[in-house]
Amino acid sequence: ALEALNQVRRFHGGVALALDPDLLDQLEFGAQAQVAVVAKRTIGQAAAQLITSGQLVALAAGTTTTQVALALRGRENLAIMTNALNIAQDLSREPGIRLTCAGGEVHGDYYTLTGPVTERALSAQTYDLAVVGVSGISLERGFTVNSLSNAASIGIMLRNARRRMIVADHSKFGQVSYAFLVELNQVDSLVTDIAPPLPYRQRFRRWGGVDRGGAGTRLARATLRGWDGSNGQPHLAGRGCWALRRCASIGPLAWRFAHAGHNV
Question: What gap in Å lies between CA 181 and CA 190, rounded to an integer?
Fold first, then answer.
């Protein structure tokens, strides 16, 4: 009787609840969002502090980028393009944010929009900043994601942006996912929750010229008040958040590496 009412599904040796596919999708996204939820929230708040008024921001779909979107609520004079239905909903009633949601094919598991329609919409804009999440960060394979179609959309955001920010929790280091995005030295900012493994810190420092004693390249410290010695750069809120940022004044591979509350 329950099977006839589509409330259970019978299989050899037992039965299981017959959940609606839409509910399954919501549960999957919700479960993923709960992974390292405190870390993602911290990352989102820190990343939002590095976004300034007047910018046009491409904000990619994902659970960590969703936390960035939530941290942007209440902000003024921002324009955001997103390929995420949930981010569009979260920001749709923000009077200070001019929001554009790319059309395209809907993937209900992560509320993501992809495909030719999405890519045309994303390609029509030039962004001040692209903020994207990743599934893997590898010294050998760079930044990767687990969807080829989503990689195409994110790739457009990154190519059309003057600056690129990656937001990812510590579990992504050492992981390689299905689709390649960019090399590690092809982004401007990386915001994560705890210190990356030593080989990554060494690589970032080497790109910044620290190992070569490069003039003007130094390790900075992020505090609750902002960046020590950063000459008025945007504040970084919240302890326990690492951020890696290019120093534009001293070349494309000059990075500053900082940890909230500690020298590195």
Answer: 14
